[in-house]
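Project standup — Tuesday

K.O.: blocked on the structure for the chain from last sprint. Re-posting the sequence here as requested.
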Amino acid sequence: MSLLDDVAERDGWRCWVCDGPVDPDKSVNDPQGPSVDSRTADRKAKVAERLAHRGCNTRKGAVTAVIAWPDRLYVVEPAPLITVAARLERKGGREMVGRCPTRQDAQEAADWLVDRFSRLVPGLPVTAGIEAGGGQFLVILTAGRR
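H.V.: unblocked you, prediction finished:
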């Protein structure tokens, strides 16, 4: 088990679940305080420890963690990002993650996804592409195998 400070420094004091900043001065018993968490509920998986808010970590224990898409993005049928991350990390390839009504909406979603995946799955090079089709724009993530 890593020390809290080591994990927090590596993760830049950001919660892997909600992507919000974690205050190092908060008590570890405070819902906004820091805690060390595994990214998966699968106890057999060999996954590095990650920093999470105590509240996010506790909620994750009761229900499957969900990475929320920001309300500012206009994405139809957004994919569950933890599932997408697991597949891309395991086998690489391409994943269609959502549909957008305009190219600008798709570009904003693509930019957010690349930034978010850089913290969700550190070390996995992810790129986002946009493909037009059927009067909409598909946002597609691509990753090679690690």
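K.O.: great, moving the ticket to review. The mean pLDDT is 85. Strands lie at 34-38, 49-53, 93-100, 126-133, 136-143.
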